[in-house]
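To make the argument concrete, we let one protein speak, a sequence paired with a row of C-alpha cells, as a model reads it:
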Amino acid sequence: MSYWAVARLEPRREQLALRCLGLAGYQTYFPRLRERRISHGRKIEVRPPLFPGYAFLTVEAQWYAARWSLGVIGLIMDGIKPARVADHIIDDLRKRERNGLIELFPRSELKPAIRCGSCKARSPGSWAFMLECGRTSACWSCWRCWAGSSGWSCRNVMLRQWLAAESLAGTLTEHPCDTVSAMH
C-alpha cells in the first residue's frame, strides 16, 4: 500500500533530488506557483516552488533509498517511519493547477486573515493575506489557505504545524482545522 510522504531537499538542488528520486522508482510531486512580476519595466513570469525545500513522494515498500538519494536532506518523520500525507491533500493541490502551475488570485481579491470559526486560531499578523478557506473564513492553520499566504517562511511554518497536527492525530480524515482545534 503506497502513501505520500514529504522529503526535505537541499537548497538549489531540487531538480537533482527529483531526478534521483525518480530514478530510484519514487513518484514525486513538486508543486510550483505561477507569479507575474515586473522586472526592469518588463512583465515576467516566475515559477517558484509552493513549498521551497520540500517535495512530496510516494512510498510503496522501502523508504530508505529516498532518504539517502542525492539532494535529499531527509524525510519528515513520524517516529521511526515517514509521516503520511493524506491523498486528498495532494489531489486538492493538483486540482488547483492550471497547465502544471498553481495560479494564485490577484492580491486585490485576497482578504485580510481573520479568526477562523472552526479552530479559533488567530492569524500571525494583519499583513498576512490568505485565500478564503472553502469551509470557513481564512485561517493560518488551514492548509487550504497556505497558497495565499504572503511569504515563504509563513508557508514553511504552516507545513510544519500541519505535519505536527497530522502526526498527533494519525492520518487526517477531517479538515485540518479540526485537528488543530483539538490541540488548543
The helical segments are 14-23, 64-67, 87-95, 152-169, 176-183. Confidence is low (pLDDT under 50) at residues 117-141, 146-150, 171-184.
